[in-house]
Amino acid sequence: MKRKISILFLLISLCVGSVFANNSKPNNTNNDSVAIVYFIKDITPENVLKLYKAIGMEMKGKIGVKIHFGEEGNKNFLNPELTKPLMQYTKATWVETNVLYVSKRRFTDSHINLAKEHGFTFAPIDILDKDAEIEYQTQGMGLKHYKKIKAGSHFENYDGYIIYSHFKGHGSAGFGGAIKNVAMGFASPGGKMAQHASDVPVISDASKCIQCSNCINNCPAHALSYVENVITIDKDKCIGCAKCIAECPKKIIKPENTNLESNVFLERLVEYAYVFTKKKPMVYINVLANISSSCDCSARAPLPFTQDIGMLGSVDIVAIEKASHDLVAKGHKCDDAFLKESGVSGMGQINYAEKLGMGTIKYKLVEIK
Ligand code: SF4
Ligand code: SF4
Hints:
With 369 residues, this protein is an alpha/beta fold. Helix content is 32%, strand content 19%. It folds into two domains: 2-195 and 262-367, LarA, N-terminal domain (Rossmann fold); 200-254, Alpha-Beta Plaits (2-Layer Sandwich).
């Protein structure tokens, strides 16, 4: 069986080169190796397609649009209507993977039903891990944390991906944009667990707990309980999924390590994204709207802390994240809006991704009217 899988991966590796050849060359960088990031201010369905065309790398073959369908109760996820012209033009499929925590998005059927309830009705939906999990070996890639990564098996079924990301805050990653959409979004639940492993959160101030039990009810590992009337995390049971961080209305559950230099979770996230970006051609669209401190996995995401900014498009995942981060910071009149709002900086994602050679933080913003 192992031998068959190895042969399959060898064939897949050989095919990746030809897939790149089939996709038209992007207008990515200028002569000084500065990545081009396209910007459109008005967030409309027509402009999403305009931005995709401007990026200059039109996908051929079977295309997946990696998207987030929004957690039940979440009000901030992106309106699916925004993608309508893009989906029609590319004849693409919306792709996602099941999550780790207690949610309708944990199982394929209820996940698809929720997506439809949220308006994702006019294109096919593929939950990439619905049949099986596959592994990619990472030897020779220079990674610190993984010898293999785990993906939904349908990841192999597509010739290229449009990574359509809602750029907003995230409880443990600082922000969630293209890197997180790729890293967590293509990972099987086993891969998600591997990224979160040892990421046990802490209760920062139990005296502020209102005993709403949101964290207890959403914990997939039954790791939270009241011990002598005080909310407590059992570190031996916790799988580090971070769901409790997103669900606490008092924001007293926090990642243990928010230090920029040693936030290992961010490195794990980037390493997963790195492997996926090596396997398939990808282009990136970030939508900077409904920007709150929590992600779309939160049923109770707070209201946005800044105004909508616009949309960015690029073939460079590092440049688009840096440009998005800079624009949100500028809109919020500070250096790091997510650090200011949630106490967690996501800059480690950008810095480590550049260190791995995934792209450059040097970018030129080109506005499209
Ligand atoms: S206690 Fe651990 S397993 Fe439970 S929700 Fe929080 S992070 Fe996830
Ligand atoms: S979600 Fe927050 S406020 Fe509610 S019980 Fe858990 S720790 Fe307390």
